[in-house]
Design brief:
There is one protein chain. The protein is an alpha/beta fold and about 775 residues long. It is about 35% helix and about 20% strand. The strands form four sheets. Strands 1, 2, 3, 4, 5, 6, 7, 8, 9, 10, 11 and 12 form a twelve-stranded mixed sheet that branches. An eight-stranded mixed sheet has the order 15-16-14-13-19-21-22-20, with helices on both faces. The longest helix has 24 residues, at about 380-405. The two termini are about 20 Å apart. Residues about 25-30 and about 305-320 have low confidence and may be disordered.
């Protein structure tokens, strides 16, 4: 597998000639896997040489590795150009919000100085402390190892009587350890240093273990008991001529150095050195990457130590009241009902439970709400009666399962009873019999019965009170939800019940007629309930472990977002992501009630926390992007006329055309003489007021209407476009986001039709051709995850 490095890094050409598979940023964008993220703090003066040495060893592995180079800001490199440092190195401020699978801290030519005298010591200490919570495994080399042992364990270094220089024989003290798996009993490693560590202190420290030593060079390798810190005293990464260069440098300086031990044949500096440590070096780094990084690092790097209070730990003594909503996938069958019961009863603070109608039991299944809609649309009495009976049997299966199941695998209620036949008789009576054509007044009543029945069944199974939404969730005469009328009534009723189950999705109009929200409206009910009782947290339980950063049908196993803000979720929903209903956020926003998205089948997983201010829940708010989403099948309609945008009346007339036709505008891009409006082509086609004449399409008719409205204007359109939204609360504070997005698309040769930075510095939208949509989303995702 390749190692991924920045474009144009000098090591690329050198290693390519050595047949080391090196992959640049550009090519890596086409890879749909999660590489290991390795950070190198390069303290050596020979930056390029050290970069190449470490890249060579990290690239000799079947794993894909992605390197990032770090420098100290308190010390300016003098042996390499400033252009090189700017192009390839970052400072701590730029990366401290990120997480890494592994980190290497190199040696430095400051070993004869006291640690505190080194000009960048304070910064190095800050980096080492940060690494304990942001890096899975840290690999320290030579002086870097001495510095790490001193900082973390208080072990001092000691000056040697003379410089240790040469290639020395080593053996293993911990032969069964994985760091030196596959090593021979004896092996050779280069050393070049004037100091060593206090060996007695290392052996005596209870948190350290010595792994390898040398009779002449002392301790070569030790590690922390938790495998997080690996300390290597030698330089197995050295090139064949590295010691030679050091020796010749010291000779020229008049230091009169000793010839490096076991390095030159016959100790003759005129002869080429013999390399006897290369296999040791490759195996050491491969073992570290494989056993100490790859096999134990979490797939989601934020899990290393994100600084976020894990969502599942938010249920603490300070939280007295939890409102929870369970979606259709969580209540699709009797087995899922029992999982829900386990979740609810596991935490007594979950007192108010909102439910959806049963969802799909398997991919080709139909949701209960869709079955109910079919009943309202069916004009054949006998067929309608059959559909109603099929629905009754589906609920009977749930009830029978809950009656019969009584084992140790989950909650069971032996006293559970539910009259499903009686419930369906009441429904048939309400609509005037199973064979009667549903009226306009009974339409919403019928499609709300999925939530109604689920709530009644779950309440009976849990032993909770059933609290009907019908008279508590209020709509006005125009069918709009009325929070002002709802909250006092709902709050008063809920507080009469210690525990209750409430059906989502519906309420009633002023005349008492049942009225439903739009699809997904149970989320809104859950949020309303949480707000009305001033819940400490609102949990939304579903079949995924939180909000995903991208569509899983496009990106393979996208990462979960640990913490996200209310505004970001609404932006994601608006731009096409299948997240919570956007209106479900509003009732909890004013009261700062956190929302937790969690998985009914995996309740132990962290999930996603949706909050007003992410900084309260994490000490790292540098996450560049929270989500990448999009929609396809858009059309860009352009109206062009000289100085069009100088005349606000023309612009107003253009937008009024769309408003009068009830066509929602996605985005608007304005120029001096032109105005481009992005609309969903399916929405245009669905408008009965636009009738395609002769062979024209609805889009052509719409452009004709615009031409007639704006006399003398030219109109054109581009079809089959996709809008891709990139959302992040820090998007407006970092130019890197736009650079990364444009670089990703350019690398894949994807033409960008237009770019729009949304208001509030929270989103960026790009339009691409439909054919490029999936490739574009993958490329952008790879830049940020």
């Amino acid at each position: 597998m390749p190692i991924k490095v920045p474009n144009d890094l000098p090591a690329v050409d050198i290693l390519t000639k050595e047949n080391v598979f090196v992959m640049t940023d550009t090519r890596a964008m086409t890879q749909d896997i999660r590489p290991l993220q390795i950070l190198i703090l390069n303290l050596m003066p020979t930056k390029i040489e050290t970069e190449t040495q470490l890249t060579r060893l990290l690239g000799n592995t079947p794993l894909q590795v992605e390197l990032e180079l770090l420098q100290t800001r308190t010390h300016k490199a003098t042996n390499v150009s400033e252009e090189h440092m700017i192009a390839f190195y970052k400072t701590f401020d730029q990366i401290k919000g990120r997480f890494y699978d592994g980190m290497i801290i190199t040696g430095a030519p400051v070993e004869l100085m006291e640690f505190e005298e080194v000009e960048y010591w304070d910064e190095l200490c800050e980096i080492m402390e940060w690494a304990t919570s942001h890096v899975h495994s840290i690999f320290y080399i030579c002086w870097g190892a001495q510095a790490g042992l001193y900082y973390h364990y208080g072990i001092k270094k000691q000056k040697l009587p003379k410089k240790l220089s040469g290639v020395y024989k080593h053996n293993l003290e911990y032969k069964t350890g994985m760091l030196f798996r596959g090593f021979d009993d004896e092996f050779f490693v280069p050393h070049s240093r004037n100091t060593t560590v206090d060996e007695a202190a290392v052996y005596q420290h209870p948190d350290l273990r010595v792994v390898s030593t040398s009779p002449d060079a002392g301790i070569f390798a030790c590690k922390s008991n938790d495998d997080k810190h690996i300390f290597i005293m030698g330089h197995s990464e050295y090139d064949p001529d590295t010691l030679k260069k050091e020796y010749e440098r010291d000779v020229l300086a008049g230091i009169n150095p000793e010839i490096p031990c076991n390095y030159y044949p016959d100790d003759d500096p005129s002869k080429p050195p013999i390399v006897i440590w290369r296999s040791c070096a490759n195996l050491l780094y491969s073992n570290w990457l494989n056993y100490f990084v790859y096999q134990s690092t979490p797939f989601d790097l934020n899990a290393i130590s994100s600084g976020v209070t894990p969502a599942h730990e938010l249920v603490t003594d300070e939280f007295d009241l939890i409102a929870a909503k369970f979606g259709g996938s969580s209540l699709s069958s009797g087995e899922m009902f029992r999982k829900v019961a386990n979740v609810v009863l596991d935490e007594p603070k979950r007192r108010y439970i909102v439910v959806s109608a049963p969802g799909k039991r398997y991919p080709d299944d139909i949701k209960v709400t869709d079955e109910l809609i079919k009943i309202t649309e069916c004009e054949v009495p006998r067929k309608r009666e059959e559909l109603l009976n099929e629905l009754k049997e589906r609920f009977r299966e749930i009830v029978d399962y809950l009656k019969e199941s009584n084992d140790e695998s989950g909650y069971s209620n032996r006293d559970f009873h539910f009259d499903i036949d009686g419930e369906f008789k009441a429904i048939e009576k309400k609509i005037g019999g199973a064979g009667r054509v549903p009226s306009e007044k009974t339409h919403d009543y019928i499609i709300s019965r999925g939530e109604y029945l689920n709530a009644k069944i779950l309440a009976a199974y849990l032993g909770f009170d059933f609290i009907d939404s019908e008279k508590l969730i209020k709509f006005d005469e125009d069918g709009n939800f009325d929070m002002e009328a709802t909250e006092p009534v709902l709050q008063s009723e809920l507080l009469k019940h210690e525990r209750g189950v409430i059906p989502g999705f519906y309420g009633s109009l002023p005349d008492g007629q049942i009225k439903t929200f739009t699809r997904g409206g149970s989320d809104i009910t859950g949020s309303i309930v949480a707000s009305s009782v001033n819940a400490d947290i609102y949990e939304n339980w579903t079949d995924v472990s939180g909000l995903l950063m991208a569509d899983p049908t496009v990106v393979n196993e996208p990462a979960t977002v640990p913490v996200i803000t209310y505004r970001e979720v609404r932006e994601m929903a608006y731009l096409g992501a299948e997240v919570m209903h956007p209106d479900a956020i509003l009732p909890v926003v004013s009261k700062d009630i956190p929302i937790r998205i969690c998985n009914t089948s995996k309740p132990e997983e962290q999930g996603t926390l949706i909050v007003k201010n992410a900084r309260y829940y994490t000490d790292d708010d540098s996450q560049e992007v929270s989500g990448i989403t999009g929609r396809q099948s858009y059309v860009a309609i352009t109206v062009q006329k000289a100085r069009l945008n100088d005349n606000p009346k023309i612009r107003e007339a253009v937008l009024k055309v769309f408003s009068d036709l009830n066509i929602k505008v996605g985005n608007i891009v304005a120029g001096v003489d032109a105005l481009t409006v992005m609309v969903d082509e399916k929405e245009v086609r669905s408008k009965a007021s636009i009738e395609a004449k002769s062979n024209a399409t609805e889009i052509e008719e719409l452009t004709g209407i615009l031409r007639d409205t704006i006399g003398g204007a030219e109109t054109s359109f581009i079809r089959d476009l996709s809008l891709i939204g990139i959302i992040g609360r820090e998007l407006g504070n970092s130019p890197n986001v736009a650079i990364k997005v444009l670089s990703a698309l350019a690398a894949m040769h994807i033409n960008i039709r237009f770019i729009d930075h949304g208001t509030g510095n929270m989103n960026m939208t790009v339009a691409v051709d439909d054919n490029d949509y999936e490739t574009a989303v993958k490329a952008i995702y790879q830049q940020f995850v």
